[in-house]
Design goal:
Number of strands: 0
Structural class: mainly alpha
Order of helices and strands: HHHHHH
Length: 172
């Protein structure tokens, strides 16, 4: 019965953590001036591609591809890190805020670098812009991990601290 309760609480926590990360990412992309310029340029490039297809008399094939690419990137950045961190944390009985917030933040910030596989050559401006985007993704992951911890692991973390074992729950 406790296993079912943990699974339900974990699933509910993920249902709250993923939209929280998405909200923080959206707010950061809109409020940060560098990210806002990057987002505007991407939107303008997509709009230009769609309008050029329409002007040539072709069906707008780039729009569904753009939407599919954004959905895939959003899933990888917003759903995979909290889910993976939650699975590892629940399996290893890690209950600390530092685990959920820190691991989710590091994984979310590292995903674009891992997917790309290499550093792009560029000037100092491009490196600074990529560092800002990495910081935004770090904060996004940290917020998702914090929400997961608040819903699923906070009470168990408090009981583990009372037992003298901070961050690890040794109860069966």
């Amino acid at each position: 019965m406790r296993l079912i309760a943990r699974l339900v609480r974990g699933a509910f926590a993920l249902l709250l953590a993923i939209p929280a990360g998405a909200a923080v990412l959206l707010a950061a992309l809109v409020l940060d001036p560098v990210a806002s310029v990057w987002l505007t340029r991407g939107a303008m490039a997509g709009l230009d591609a769609g309008l050029s297809d329409l002007a040539a008399g072709l069906p707008p094939e780039s729009l569904p591809l753009l939407i599919a690419g954004l959905a895939q990137a959003s899933f990888v950045l917003l759903a995979v890190p909290p889910t993976l961190v939650a699975l590892i944390g629940e399996t290893l009985r890690l209950r600390g805020l530092s685990w959920y917030g820190g691991a989710c933040a590091l994984l979310t910030a590292a995903l674009p670098w891992l997917a790309r596989g290499a550093v792009r050559p560029g000037g100092a401006g491009q490196v600074a812009a990529e560092a800002r985007i990495t910081a935004i993704l770090f904060v996004t992951g940290a917020s998702a991990g914090l929400v997961y911890w608040l819903v699923a692991a906070r009470r168990r973390d408090a009981s583990a601290i009372r037992l003298g074992s901070p961050g690890i729950d040794r109860t069966p």
